[in-house]
Amino acid sequence: MPRHIVLSGSTPEGLRDLAAKEGADVIVFGSEYRTTPGHVDPGTSARALLDDGPVAIAIAPSEMRYLADAPVATVAAVNGDEDPAASTTAEAIAKQFGSAIATKYTGDVGLVVLGSKLGTPTGTVRLSAAAQYLIDLVRCPVLVLARDVPVAFG
Fold first, then answer.
1. How far is CA 30 from CA 55, 71, 99, in A?
2. Do 142 and 58 meet the contact criterion of CB atoms below 8 Å apart?
3. CB 20 within 8 A of CB 12
4. Residue 63 has pLDDT above 80, yes or no
5. How far apart are CA 117 and CA 128, in angstroms?
6. Backbone CA torsion sign across 95, 98, 101, 107
7. pLDDT digits (tens, 9 = 90+) for 108-137
8. What is the mean pLDDT of the chain?
């Protein structure tokens, strides 16, 4: 992966600018450093981009690096009825990894794909309160999409 050095007074703004410059589809974060292993907790910069960010945001559970080879047996598309990009992206990921599709989060899901809430401008990330709460509950990686913008895999 190429390395980029960005000078910015704000990490979220610097990442926003870099994502635009590079044409990125996703910005990936680990969980906040004090997070209990296996839990998902976006840090300050990730939270800022989860509220009006320009591209999808992925957040890995704490200490996921120890599970890097774990299979993604099931992909859950959450808010797919509110934002069809969630279903489209989950289906593409499932096809790529040979995974099953779920329409809600359960404890055996390997990845949650969340769409942005109704009323969000196209190309913008914005979570509903229910989606924010779900992120607090999950024990797997989460991919939050910009409204109406699926992420292509494969």
1. 16, 18, 23
2. yes
3. no
4. yes
5. 5
6. negative
7. 899 999 999 999 999 999 999 999 999 999
8. 91
